[in-house]
Specification:
Number of helices of chain A: 11
Distance between the termini of chain B: 21 Å
Oligomer: heterodimer
Radius of gyration of chain B: 19 Å
Order of helices and strands of chain A: EEEHEEHEHHHEHEHEEHEHEEHEH
Number of strands of chain B: 0
Number of domains of chain B: 1
Largest sheet of chain A: 6 strands, mixed
Radius of gyration of chain A: 22 Å
Mean pLDDT of chain A: 82
CATH superfamily of the largest domain in chain A: P-loop containing nucleotide triphosphate hydrolases
Helix content of chain A: 25-40%
CATH topology of the largest domain in chain A: Rossmann fold
Shape of chain B: elongated
Number of strands of chain A: 14
Strand order of the largest sheet of chain A: 6-7-8-3-9-10
Distance between the termini of chain A: 23 Å
Amino acid sequence: MTETSNPSPDGLPCGPAPGAPPLQRARPDSVAERREPPSGSDLRARGIRVRGLTRRFGSRVALHPIELDVEPGTVTGLLGPNGSGKSTLLRCLVGLVRADAGRALVDGVALAGDGVAVRRRVSYSPGEIALYGEMRGRAHLEWLLRGRGKRAVERAVSVAREIELPLRQRVRTYSHGMKRQLLFAAAIAPRLPVRILDEPTEGLDPSKRGLVLDMLRADVDGGSAILLSSHHLGEVDRVCDRLVFLDRGHKLADESAADVARRASRVVQMELEREGDPRALAAALDGLAGAAVASEGTRVTARLADDDPRPFLAAAFARTDLPRPLAVRFGELSLAELYRELYGVEAC
Amino acid sequence: MERTLRSYLWPALGYLIVLEAMLAAACLFWPSFRDNVESLKAMAPMASLRQMVDALAQGGVEAYVNGQHFFKGCNTLGTAAAVLFAMNAVAGEANRGTMELWLSRPFTRRRLLLERYVAGALALTVPIFLSSLTVPWLLSFVDERMDIAGLMLCSAHQSLFLLALYSATFLLSTLSSRPVWIAMAMLFFTTLEFSLYLVKTVTHWSIFRLTDIEALIWIMQHRALDWTRCLPMVATSVVLLVAAERSFARRVV
């Protein structure tokens, strides 16, 4: 878990400490290679700052007090199962759902009233796809971008062309994925410092998803702060600099690239042949050098007590009576594994 | 606002055409009514209807046109239009799932709501004034005349009445997600009120007393709005609109 404690002028603790590594522009290939969020006093009030945001629906607490920072020039991914509070948090941040308690600053503007001041600085793409079917694509884009200026519409049309969206057709003839693309084009087009996107790639085919993720990456490279939610681990692995895991309204983890790397450095995985007995191997290795060992399928996973795998590996390799592993991996943890570790369920 | 207005354009045009068709038929029927008023009175099944026919006959063409156009045409068709124009204002968005999209743009909820209210209110009231403007021309076919100022005052009075019904439906729309239920509730209420109007012993409980032939004849005779009737209607609309705004501000997407 990562906590930030650098106080901002308004008293909100925000952002990493000054002197953190500078913003890198190259796109990372894996979670472990991702950059740390950029810092700097000029950016402190920018991006998104959430402190103690809470929301109840009747007796059900949809959001327990949430703390969150999204830095300019980064993509933060919200992950969690259905009902974890991702959409509620995003809706709270744009004022569509009023928070019962807590504060939020979006691009330096406090969330207040119906959130219109925030929405002027934020483009928002809802997770629910319900559009006005009677409108044509272009007219719908204009409707979505009302109040954002003509240039935003022109850019949205250009984005729509890039993703081959037929703007002359009525929206009712669009497929689910095309509707999602229309929402994305409207969300990415305005020149705004913050974007809040609820499942922006849901329903897209792999090629369109790749295009969308590339555009998001290019956008943050221009300095935007993006907060997106997703169920799709592949895309967050590819595009996000920071991962926030929610479950039943609680923030389970807030992982930066370094956090994930640290978590991964304590995991050793062994792959066995099909004839091997992973359960027996796990039972035999459990407790060696303080490791907790479990098996699943043909894989045995050891969670180490510290960052140094050598005592565990030495003790394990000394047991020549145990099944021979086909492969041994150390220092790698995919998001799917991270998800499983946090929630105990398989991610999609 | 432009798109909101445009979305009401076709329904408003349809409403105007039907209203105008009813008005034209009524105006052209005037000589026949005048000549056969006794027979029509005899055919009326209820005492209240006989009294109405009497009032129309005594008031001449002005009372007849007011009764036909405002009391009959606007109160039936206008009430239906008021309900239809308001029921989808917010509940329709919730019902089709577009409310989140509607509210996610950089405008205040108050502004979005008022845009809807104003667009629907214009769609409801403008056809009443437009159709009333054609009355002198229609009456010229039956060699009758009518003062346009009085007609405009009656149109304003009728519009205020319908706006109160429209505002009530609008408030329900901010509270519910089911437009059909709202329509059913409002149509049940207005039908009940109209039924009450027709029963002599309880007629004073009916809201249609505010806009019946008696009220319209008073306006034509005095060439002024009857503020004892208009003020409650205006106040009702304002209170209901404020309540709708409050309800909408608290509404969860």
